[in-house]
Structures are given as structure tokens and as C-alpha cells.
């Protein structure tokens, strides 16, 4: 497994923004987050494993920059992507409950990770209740996203599945302040989309071409432009309830 490189600096702005959406973080909360996350920062190249299934977890990883993913792989090489992780999102904050990791965490792009040891995370949540509450909310949303993905694979058509994935990633990016008008970063390949939606690459290609002809989206230069978000949400049967944006608005 590639261990990447470790540095002493980091930019946890995205995490502060993400957690602030779930709780009223004070300036002291944000400063403590920054201090905790900049103690150990690791850069991992694109398409490398961060932690493999079966490994013993030593840190809670926070994506500071770049995209990561969780996945399971069968003995014959087939892979199911379980979720994508965007800047400012934590990778399994309760991971220390596990003796061995039951999935693989890997990079999509080059990723800068903040690595937080178990004891430091425990001290952080004990000292700052607002941060603890925000972390609980992120776990609830992660579970809700997983349930929505299961629903997509079990019930949505191919067109609806991909449209739903595009809606989710765009809305999550926008909520984290990572969009420019109707455009967001989109480093996923058609193989990634196929492994996330349970489809073949050929079917993914045909479906995306159909969506382009319908004037819904455009993918180029590792970016996605959504031409009509309301219409894309309608064809995807997309409802933002599972992302709990109403709680974010209250916060």
C-alpha cells in the first residue's frame, strides 16, 4: 500500500464549512479543528489505497483536498463503490470500533488527508460539544446516503441512477462551497460510475450520451456542468431530504 507523504500543514477550511452546516461552531471550535487536523497531513496520489479491507485502522482520515471513495472488491476482481468522499468530509469517524476495516478506502484524485489519532479525536469531542454534535450528524447523513444508493441500485432505472448520482454530487459540492455557478469538479471515470451504479461501462456511456442529448449535463475536462438542475432532479426522482439540508439551514 502506498503510504504517500506526510507534512505539517493543512487547509481544513472545507471541513470547518461542512461541520458548521451541522452545528454552530465557534471561532474557538474552528481553531481547535485546524490545530488537530494540521498535526499530521498526508498526501496520497490518485488511484491508490489509503486503507485496505482487513487493515487495522490507526487514524480517522479527513479529506482536506481531492476526492476519495469507499469500495468492496470480490475475489474475482469485481468492485462495488459504496460512496464518494468530497473535500471536508470524514472517512468513518467511528472507525476505531472495528478491529479490522471491512472495506477499502482509496483515492480518486490526489488527496490530502488529515490523520487524527483515536485519543485526539476523543479529546476533541469531549472538549467541544458542538463539534461532537456535528460529527454525529455527518454519520447520520452518511448512513442516509448509503440507503439512497441501495434504493437506486434496487429500484431506479439506469437513466435515473446516473441522474441521481449526478444530482447528489452536485448538491453536496454546492453545499460545501465547491461549485462555480452550475459547474463542479467531476474527476470520475465511466468505470467509476459503472462500479457505483451497478451498471456496465457500455450502458453508462450510452446513458450519459442520452443525458447530453437531452440537454441536462455536460462532462468535460474533469468538470460537470448541470444545465437544468430542476429537470435533472425531476428525472432522477431526486429528493434532498436524505441529505438533511433543512438541518443545515437551521444551523
From TrEMBL:
InterPro entries: cNMP-bd_dom, cNMP-bd_dom_sf, Env_Response_Regulators, HTH_CRP, RmlC-like_jellyroll, WH-like_DNA-bd_sf, WH_DNA-bd_sf. PROSITE patterns: HTH_CRP_2. Keywords: DNA-binding, Transcription, Transcription regulation. Residues 156-230 form the HTH crp-type domain. It comes from Novosphingobium soli. The keyword Transcription regulation applies. It comes from the Bacteria. This is Crp/Fnr family transcriptional regulator. SMART domains: cNMP (SM00100), HTH_CRP (SM00419).
Amino acid at each position: 500500500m502506498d503510504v504517500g507523504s506526510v507534512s505539517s500543514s493543512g487547509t481544513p477550511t472545507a471541513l470547518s464549512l461542512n461541520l458548521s452546516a451541522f452545528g454552530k461552531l465557534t471561532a474557538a471550535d474552528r481553531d481547535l479543528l485546524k490545530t488537530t487536523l494540521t498535526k499530521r497531513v498526508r498526501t496520497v496520489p490518485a488511484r491508490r489505497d489509503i486503507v485496505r479491507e482487513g487493515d487495522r485502522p490507526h487514524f480517522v482520515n479527513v479529506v482536506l483536498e481531492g476526492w476519495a471513495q469507499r469500495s468492496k472488491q470480490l475475489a474475482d476482481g469485481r468492485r462495488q463503490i459504496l460512496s464518494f468522499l468530497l473535500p471536508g468530509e470524514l472517512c468513518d469517524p467511528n472507525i476505531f470500533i472495528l478491529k479490522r476495516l471491512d472495506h477499502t478506502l482509496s483515492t480518486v484524485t490526489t488527496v490530502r488527508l488529515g490523520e487524527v489519532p483515536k485519543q485526539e479525536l476523543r479529546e476533541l469531542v469531549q472538549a467541544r460539544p458542538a463539534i461532537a454534535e456535528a460529527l454525529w450528524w455527518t454519520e447520520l447523513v452518511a448512513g442516509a446516503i448509503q440507503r439512497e444508493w441501495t434504493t437506486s441500485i434496487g429500484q431506479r432505472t439506469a437513466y435515473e441512477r446516473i441522474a441521481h448520482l449526478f444530482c447528489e454530487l452536485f448538491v453536496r459540492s454546492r453545499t460545501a462551497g465547491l461549485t462555480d455557478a452550475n459547474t463542479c469538479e467531476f474527476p470520475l471515470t465511466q468505470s467509476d460510475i459503472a462500479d457505483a451504479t451497478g451498471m456496465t461501462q457500455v450502458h453508462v456511456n450510452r446513458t450519459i450520451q442520452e443525458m447530453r442529448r437531452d440537454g441536462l449535463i455536460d462532462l468535460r475536462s474533469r468538470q460537470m456542468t448541470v444545465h437544468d438542475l430542476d429537470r435533472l432532479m425531476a428525472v432522477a426522482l431526486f429528493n434532498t431530504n436524505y441529505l438533511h439540508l433543512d438541518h443545515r439551514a437551521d444551523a
